[in-house]
Amino acid sequence: MAIGGVAAGIAAAGCAAALLIATASPGAPAHPAVAARPGAAVHPGGSPSGGPVILTAAMVQRVAAASQSALASSGREQITYQNRKNGTVDGHGDDVITFSGGNYNWAIDELVPPSASPRLPAMEVAGITRFVNGVAYLQIDVTDPKSPWLRATKWSGPGYFPVPKTALQLLSPRAKFQDLGWQVIGGVRLEHLRATQLSGLPGSLTFAGYRQPGEALSALDLWVDASGVLHQMQLELKSSDSSTTMTVAFSQFGQPETITAPANWIKSGI
Questions:
Q1: Which H helix or E strand runs over 34?
Q2: Main-chain phi, psi angles of 61, to 5 degrees
Q3: What distance separates the 2 farthest-apart alpha carbons in the chain?
Q4: Which has the closest alpha carbon to 223: 177, 185, 191?
Q5: Beta strands of 27-139 (E only): which ranges?
Q6: Rounded distance between C-alpha atoms, residue 216 and residue 56, angstroms
Q7: Which of 6-20, 55-69, 134-148, 182-196 has the highest mean pLDDT?
Q8: CA–CA dist 121, 20 (Å, integer)
Q9: Could you give the dihedral angle defined by the CA atoms of residues 83, 236, 247 and 163, in that order, rounded to the nearest 10 degrees?
Q10: How confident is residue 157, by pLDDT bands cut at 50, 70 and 90?
């Protein structure tokens, strides 16, 4: 349901006014359903008893600290997701977010399902939301060269925005991560971790804008490099009649990003 009500709200405003790897390696899987691809090298993790190793709290905290450090200043986040309702796909998207300090550029390309807003039908949304020095700017339709930039006066988008440091709250020892071994994906050697305890995880509402009503986290997998830096996470959320699958990939760690306010904009009531 992609930024859910936000995308629906952006689209509605547009009508009123005239919303671990595409990772460091281009060959990595980008769809939530893809985990280990045929041909990927896998080094199975295990304990002396033959079962998967459960990471200690110290190990998980090391991964969290390394990832927070890598994503502290700037980088890139790609979110690819799919919503299903009663088994039928009714929403999907591929969002790309670049960030530098507290500034963000959020490129949105998605189909918002009707469940995102009862008053609106399913709709395609292709726009940009940009936050610069705490101010939100919206370009409703990037496919229209005449689509103006709007400066929001009321809306503060970060409540919906999947800020990387907030997503990292899911790296909690409470998840009791299993080490499933190493995978070479797109030339990058990554360790595959799977959460075995999902209830009550900090940050479990991080992607609230993408989930459908009533869904709860039902699966969480992570891929980290040899330094403990998170490159990719895959999530599944479910309710009695819906599901959302999602891949979140991080890359360009610490690389400089220039994110500035649009040169021309129109003040809006959003």
A1: none
A2: -65, -35
A3: 66
A4: 191
A5: 41-43, 53-54, 74-85, 88-100, 103-112, 123-132, 135-139
A6: 25
A7: 55-69
A8: 33
A9: 90
A10: low
